[in-house]
Amino acid sequence: MLISHSHRFIYLKTIKTAGTSIEIYFERYCVDPSIYPGERHETGTLVSPGGVIGCRGVDVAGETWYNHMPGCRVRELVGSALWDGYYRFCAIRNPFDKAVSHFWFSMPEETRRNLAAADFTVVRAAFGDWVRGRLLPVDRYIYSIAGVVAVNDFIRHESLPADMQRVCGAVGVAWEPERLGRFKSDARVRGEHFSEYYDPEIEGVIRDAYGWELEHFGYGLS
Fold first, then answer.
1. pLDDT confidence of 183, banded at 50, 70, 90?
2. Quick one: which of 111, 135, 190, 214 has the fewest CB in 10 Å?
3. Following CA atoms 82, 83, 88, 92 in sequence, which dihedral angle do they give, to the nearest 10 degrees?
4. Contacts for 142 with CB less than 8 Å, ≥ 6 apart
5. Rounded-to-integer distance, Cα 142 and Cα 102, Å
6. Closest by alpha carbon to 207, among 99, 64, 110, 133?
7. What is the tens place of the pLDDT at every residue in 54-70?
8. Hey, how many other C-beta atoms are within 10 angstroms of the C-beta on 6?
9. For the whole prediction, is pTM greater than 0.90?
10. Per-position DSSP letters for 56-87, written without gaps between them
11. Where would I find the H helices in the chain?
């Protein structure tokens, strides 16, 4: 998560939505340039007069500011006046695609290598078992407070460059497409479209878990 006092924004980081890439793009505006350590995947908490860069990629236990903080906690720490006065945004992704991405990210390296070479029926079965056997990464607790959306804007994973440009304009920073990295994007080692992973049962699990996102953003299996 990020807070920028110079550009008056708060970024809430969601899960498997290109969140790290977006966070790294904006974090330079949240710290005094003289102490900015530069772009890196893992970072400890950095609090300065310029703002806050939350801890990410390392153990966040005991940290006040950390990557996937819920908006209600951020508002509690900064106060309602600052929260209400700052532009708040996060990223969103088609839940059907998001679940597939998280599946690959969660796989141990050896399992990932085996599945990369397997017939896709094996991959599909493994994905179904994974969906049945774990809590899915639902983000509403991050960008909603008491069931109400608490951000001013969403960056859609599916239209990332255009939405990044819009948000950059809203917070008064330059849109430089070449600076937007692709962090943590190498775990998915198969090229099949995400829709191919689903049978009616597993589709139903996703629809039950992500009903609000599917309805609000019009997402589906296409």
1. low
2. 135
3. 160
4. 12, 13, 14, 68, 69, 70, 71, 90
5. 17
6. 99
7. 999 778 888 999 999 99
8. 15
9. yes
10. BSS--TT-SSBTT--HHHHHHHH-HHHHHHSE
11. 19-27, 71-78, 80-85, 95-106, 109-117, 120-132, 140-143, 160-171, 200-209, 211-217
